[in-house]
Amino acid sequence: MNGLSTILIVVGLFLLGGIYSFVKQQMPKGLIVLLSLGAAMCLAAGVMRLDVWA
What we know:
Elements: H1 2-24, H2 29-49
């Protein structure tokens, strides 16, 4: 299931771009934190599924 890993990493990077945009637009801090947590979870799940650690 390497495709799912790629999708998770791409979604995580997309969310990171959204965080940058929200910070520049000075959106509410709660929304930025929520987006940051989502990006971190997507990136972590994608990297863990790549089996690069084994």
